[in-house]
Design goal:
- By secondary structure, the protein is α/β, with parallel strands linked by helices.
């Protein structure tokens, strides 16, 4: 017989009894009525901020979620956490804070929900790092919770998006675009609220979190502006109250098979390499063993089906118009590529959620049939070799080829590489090597959208490769390899590369290597010295002290635990 569920197990400790009169007094001041003290207390974690279009509308969505909690019989309590903008900080020192913010967001939601004694919570995110940060907090706290995606942005003029602007910078440097043309693209690419419009990291992670079962069906494929998204928030509030009463928790949902479902959906959508980093981190906080090799194992049988930017033609808003990712998931389920028995926040299984979902209309070209995929197996390729003993992550769509051999052009940091590319000092046949950008060395593992966009803007997308111990924006494309581990800052082989060395990237053999003998690498290692730390105080220094390898998701762990794993 199932043990009865106490829907107020956490809030009772804060609100009931003689000693908690001071707590009740303070809550009355923020609007609690007598009846509110007897309801399940549901936090609503808002990532609102006017620092980015991705999150500028989330305050309104959070109020809708609170209304849903209240109509479902709970008491909604709104609180905020932070967000930073990758698109705005990209290519600057500020981008070092991006991945760090994922940990701050997870920590802050955990801290507020734990201190307030919430019985459950809704988390609403709309930019690259606040989504996995929210999911990590859900996994850690293991209290009934639903994630809501803030929604995708509408297209700009001529179907432009933020990557159009980054690539226009390279075109301007190459002289193929006028100053007036660049300004016109800058002014028309971002029309309003919502996350970046291709299958970049935000839309990738929203889809992955829905596939994990942590969002209501359809949440990941909605525009930021509109009644569909507001209704999604209200339903999420109601759903958490139900979950509290039924005792349904995130770790009941976050099984190993659920993570395999998320990997499958990310691959079918042609999603961002950041999904590897973030799914590893969410699994870590959920207590689920997930490794880089699981992406290879799952990827061998899952095709790329969605023709979405950056490698493809279409925007997320256009996928929304034909039904979003639910028909795709049903297609994958019917092909036995998803685990239909996985539980979701609806209280039903994935198979039950997809049972009555209509398939895509005939004639649409955005999602290919399984019989005619864009690529027969995963575009997310895990590479090993003498340059990446712990692994690296490549995004190989098939358009850029499957093997590249070139001459290393080494840069200590992103800014130097971007300047060289824009100045025309990088040429066909080069492998741009950007190091000291890993989790510890950056610190913060900056995304290399500026240099990759500059490469394409200068017309070198098919002729130049780029490898880094940093990572890539979901908007990056081309022959790129990131997450190289161990990173340069801890003595990884990428720190031993010299300009002029021959480097081979082989997606078929899943190999990343430098054409040097083991003896030469040992000789260089003896002469290697660590670079001076970028930060010696504050959040960046704390992060650098605690962060683990990219091959483990760049999670922050106690120093002693990190040393045992090193």
């Amino acid at each position: 017989m199932k043990k009865p569920v106490d829907p107020r197990a956490h809030s009772r400790v804060v609100m009931e009894g003689l000693t908690q009169a001071p707590a009740r007094a303070m809550l009355r001041a923020v609007g609690f009525t007598e009846a509110d003290f007897g309801k399940p207390q549901i936090g609503v974690a808002s990532t609102w901020g006017n620092v980015t279009p991705c999150n500028m509308h989330i305050a309104e969505l959070a109020r809708e979620a609170c209304a849903g909690v209240d109509s479902g019989g709970g008491k909604g309590v709104l609180f905020n956490t932070i967000t930073v903008s990758d698109g705005i900080s990209m290519g600057t020192p500020g981008m070092r804070y991006s991945l760090v913010s994922r940990e701050i967001i997870a920590d802050s939601i955990e801290a507020v929900a734990g201190a307030a004694g919430f019985d459950g919570f809704v988390a609403i995110g709309g930019c690259d790092k606040n989504m996995p940060g929210c999911a990590m907090a859900m996994a850690r706290l293991n209290r009934p919770a639903v994630f809501v995606y803030g929604g995708t942005i509408r297209p700009g003029t001529k179907r432009r998006d933020i990557v159009s602007v980054f690539e226009a910078v390279g075109a301007r440097a190459a002289g193929t675009l006028s100053e007036a043309g660049l300004l016109e693209i800058e002014r028309t690419a971002i029309p309003g609220p919502g996350s970046c419009g291709g299958m970049y990291t935000a839309n990738t992670m929203a889809s992955a979190i829905e596939a994990l079962g942590l969002s209501l069906p359809g949440s990941s494929a909605q525009e930021a502006v509109g009644e569909d998204k507001r209704a999604d928030c209200r339903r999420a509030g109601e759903a958490v109250v139900r979950m509290v009463r039924e005792g349904l928790k995130p770790r009941d949902i976050l099984s190993r098979r659920a993570f395999e479902n998320a990997i499958t959906v990310v691959i079918a959508l042609g999603g961002s390499t950041n999904a590897v980093l973030h799914l590893l981190a969410i699994a870590h906080d959920a207590g689920v063993r997930l490794t880089l090799d699981d992406f290879t194992r799952v990827g061998r049988r899952v095709p790329v089906l969605a023709d979405l930017r950056p490698s493809g033609r279409y925007l997320m808003s256009e996928l929304v118009e034909i039904g979003g990712i639910q028909p795709l998931m049903r297609m994958l389920l019917e092909a036995d590529l998803l685990h239909g028995d996985c539980l979701t926040v609806t209280g039903r299984t994935l198979r039950e959620n997809l049972e009555n979902v209509p398939m895509y209309m005939s004639g649409q070209e955005i999602v290919r049939p399984l019989s005619a995929p864009l690529k027969k197996d995963s575009h997310l390729v895990i590479l090993y070799g003498n340059l990446a003993p712990e692994g690296a992550v490549a995004k190989i769509s098939g358009r850029e080829g499957e093997r590249f051999r070139g001459t290393a052009r080494v840069f200590e940091g992103e800014e130097r590489a971007t300047s060289a590319i824009l100045a025309g000092r990088v040429r066909a046949g080069d492998v741009v090597v950007i190091r000291q950008e890993g989790p510890r060395g950056g610190p913060g593992m900056r995304e290399m959208l500026s240099p990759t966009s500059a490469i394409f803007g200068r017309g070198l997308g098919a002729d130049v490769a780029l490898i880094t111990d940093g990572r890539f924006s979901g908007g990056s494309h081309g022959f790129v390899v990131g997450h190289i581990a161990p990173e340069a800052a801890v003595g990884g082989p990428i720190g031993l590369v010299r300009s002029g060395d021959a480097i081979v990237i082989d997606a078929v053999k899943r190999e990343l290597r430098i054409e040097l003998s083991a003896a030469e690498l040992r000789r260089r290692r003896k002469a290697w010295k660590p670079a001076r730390p970028y930060a010696t105080g504050g959040a960046l220094a704390k992060y650098a002290q605690l962060v683990s390898s990219a091959s483990r998701g760049a999670v922050t762990v106690p120093i002693q635990a990190r040393r045992r794993d090193s």
